[in-house]
């Protein structure tokens, strides 16, 4: 498993963060937030996941029910 920093973002500011161990950034985002996520588009509230080993940043948004 890899280690990821998972941050809940409001625009460009982090409102919370935690470390998650997971196989993929998507799994880390889901585990840390307890919610389903998908690729970010233009959402204001979003999830930034950073791979601690190589610094790659991934962006996800919360998936709304029915989408």
Quick one: how many beta strands? 5
Assign a percent range to the helix content.
10-25%
Q: What is the straight-line distance between the termini?
A: 29 Å
Stretches with pLDDT under 50, minimum 5 residues: none
What pattern of helices and strands is seen along the backbone? EEHEEE
Number of domains: 1
Number of helices: 1
Tertiary shape: globular
What portion of residues belong to β-strands?
over 45%
What's the overall average pLDDT, rounded? 94
Over the alpha carbons, how many angstroms does the gyration radius reach? 11 Å
Brief summary of the model shown:
About 15% of the residues lie in helices and about 50% in strands. With about 70 residues, it is mainly β.
List keywords for this structure.
5 strands, globular, 52% strand, 5-stranded antiparallel sheet, 67 residues, mainly beta
Write the layout of secondary structure elements.
Elements lengths: L1 E9 L2 E10 L2 H9 L3 E3 L5 E7 L5 E6 L5
Antiparallel strand pairs: 1-2, 1-4, 3-5, 4-5
Structural summary, described in words:
With 67 residues, the protein is mainly beta. It has one domain. 13% of the residues lie in helices and 52% in strands. The protein has one helix and five strands. It has one helix at residues 25-33, and strands at residues 2-10, 13-22, 37-39, 45-51, 57-62. Strands 2-1-4-5-3 form a five-stranded antiparallel beta sheet, with helices on one face. A hairpin with a 5-residue loop joins strand 4 (45-51) and strand 5. It is globular and about 30 Å long. It starts with a strand and ends in a 5-residue tail after the last strand. The mean pLDDT is 94.
């Amino acid at each position: 498993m890899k280690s990821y920093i998972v941050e809940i973002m409001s625009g460009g500011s982090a409102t919370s963060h935690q470390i998650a161990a997971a196989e993929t950034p998507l799994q880390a985002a889901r585990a840390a937030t307890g919610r389903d996520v998908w690729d970010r588009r233009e959402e204001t509230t979003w999830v930034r996941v950073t791979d601690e080993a190589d610094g790659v940043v991934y962006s996800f948004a919360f998936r709304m029910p029915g989408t």
